[in-house]
Amino acid sequence: MKAQPPHRPDSPATDSPVARFRRPEDPEWHWLENREEPAVADFLEAANAEFAAWFAPLDDLVERLYHGHLARRELAVHGLRSPLDHYTYWSETAAEADYPVWWRHPNGKPDRAAPFLDLEARAADHDFLELGDMALSPDERWLAWTEDTTGDEMFDLFLTRLPDGEPVRLLEGIGPELTWAEDNATLFFTRYDATQRPESVWRLALAEGVASEPALVLREEDPEFWLGLGKTRSREWLVLESASKDTSESYLIPARAPATPPRCFRPRESGVELSLDHRPGHFYLLHNREAPHFRLDVIDEAQLDAAADADRWHPLIPHRDEDTLEGVDAFAWGLVITERDHEEAQVRLRVMEFDAGHRLTRDERLPLPETPCSLALGDAPHFDQRRLRLREESFVLPVTWIEHDLDSGERTLLKQQPIHGDLRPEELACERLWATSHDGERIPVSVVMRADLAGHPLPTLLYGYGAYGEVLDPWFSVARLELLARGAAFAVAHVRGGGDRGEPWYLAGKLEHKANSFRDFLAARDCLVEHGISDGERIAAYGASAGGLLVGASLNLAPEAFCAAVLDVPFVDVLRTMENPDLPLTTAEYTEWGNPDEPDARKRIRAYSPLDNLAAAPYPTMFLQGSWHDTRVPYWEPAKLYARLTELGTARGAVLLRTDMAAGHGGASGRFKAWHDGARQDAYILWALGMENREA
Question: Where is this region: Disordered (predicted)?
Answer without folding.
Answer: 1-22
